[in-house]
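Protocol step 4 of 6: record predicted structures for both targets in the notebook before any analysis. Target 1:
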Amino acid sequence: MRKIDSLLSEYGESHQNPTNKLIHWICVPLIFFSLMGLIASIPAGMLRSVLGEGSMYANWAAVLLAMALIYYVSLSIPLTVGMLLFALLCLFLINRLVLLNIAPLWVVSLAIFVAAWIGQFYGHKVEGKKPSFFKDVQFLMIGPAWLMHFIYKKLGIPY
């Protein structure tokens, strides 16, 4: 069995309850988005001096994304493509959020992050099982890929 199949299967063991699954479909993408927003909020003066002041995507979230994609490539190239597309959408939405100037990006991101984690823990309470990342921290990266693999299955795309 491939490593990705093993990880997805193990992750799925603690995500059987339909309510918990639904919560994960909402909260995992929100956590991913908010985490990118929080990291993008870290001042990136050094990055911008290298990449150019006009680059909206010269932020620490883009750097962390590159490292995450290396991990995903080690598991599945097709899933990496899906994760890249989702992450680029998140970066785009983060930049739109900054342009709207509703509140500082870190404040909006922190609020989403906290609310989504409350949802996640409620889902696991309903499930009656601890979150997988309590066993192995790499499951924090597997959660988004687990959702992506369902999209791939629905579209008939091998992962």
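Target 2:
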Amino acid sequence: MQITTTFRHLEPSDALKSYAEEKLERIKKYIDEPMIAQVFMTVEKIRHCAEVTLTAKGITIKASEETNDMYAAIDAVVDKIERQLRRYKERIKEHKPASETLARQVRKSVVEAESIEQRKTPVVIRTKTFSMKPMSVEEAVMQMDLLHKDFLVFTDAATDSINVIYRRKDGDYGLIEPQKG
């Protein structure tokens, strides 16, 4: 861990610096290296303020605390950082798929892509189902615009047949109707 300590309106003290570094060692268990910590210690009249900015693995966590004692401020700010990192780690665990690691997923998708390219016949990759309530062509255009889609399959209320409305390249709309007969 790389720690930078800055003193503002306070004489630089090796004791405070080593105390802050010792306390920041506690947070190593929550996140892997490389980690950069910036500690700012400020004294304004009787207020002692400790502020920590932690950057690691693409995340930045900041916390600050003010007390009447600099050591107490350092303790409190490290506790805040530790709580934030614990919460962050729990969120990551909740969102990670338990069965496969990311590397395995990437390898699996590459293999699937290669096998799809080798096939000569087209394959249905995705199927989507939706409910079609009968509507007019004007309602279908409005629904398509609301959903920000380029086309919409709908049941025409007047003819009770399945139609497709689509957005043309010139900005107008096209309608595909089934032929009767």
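Step 5 preliminary note on target 2. The first strand starts at residue 2 and ends at 8. Residues 18 and 168 are 67 Å apart (CA to CA).
Proceed to step 6 after PI sign-off.
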